[in-house]
Amino acid sequence: MVNTCQNPEIFKEMNNAFAYLPQGVIWKCQCSHWPKEVQLAANVKIVDWLPQSDLLAHPSIRLFVTHGGQNSVMEAIRHGVPMVGLPVNGDQHGNMVRVVAKNYGVSIQLNQVTADTLTLMLKQVIEDKRYKSAVAAASVILRSQPLSPAQRLVGWIDHILQTQGAAHLKPYAFQQPWHEQYLIDVFVFLLGLTLGTVWLCGKLLGVVVRWLRGARKVKKT
């Protein structure tokens, strides 16, 4: 998030909120981008990079503060970790709306972040077991697969061999001629329709003009 949002005040408020937690906080960001005027809380550790999925899999993890990207949300659900979302852009807002709707966590807009508000939200998700229960149930569903990835791979390879290439699974676009793929036929049709309409309007306009001229001549005579 430090790379995405350059407002030092946001990080100051977040850092102050983390300071109120009894738990330790691991914050992923580039140390060189950290605002120099913000004094890091004693329970906060900054790292340039970490294996996020492995960290979320640790049994001591209580909460995941995330911007709400699709990969981050899916990793948190897979490992049964409730979330506090601070969406920044793109699909993150929509992802966090679904997270809140499913009771996997809560969300707050960046322009609404204060130390007090964020502290309350962090403690709410940590202490209210409903969030952990909801995301843990989703984790069971996500992990419960009848076949392992290796078994699915072997099964699909066998299916392709048996059907001699699995042509029935190929997208219809691969079977279309090039002029249909690039919508040339549609463009030609619309162009012809437009030109035909212009030509017809021109003819009608010519008829109207000739009729008006004829009417004027009749009046003069």
UniProtKB/TrEMBL annotation:
This is UDP-glucuronosyltransferase. It is found in: Membrane; Microsome membrane. Its main location: membrane. It comes from the Eukaryota. Signal peptide: none annotated. The lineage of its organism: Eukaryota, Metazoa, Chordata, Craniata, Vertebrata. The keyword Glycosyltransferase applies. Gene3D superfamilies: Glycogen Phosphorylase B. Belongs to the UDP-glycosyltransferase family.
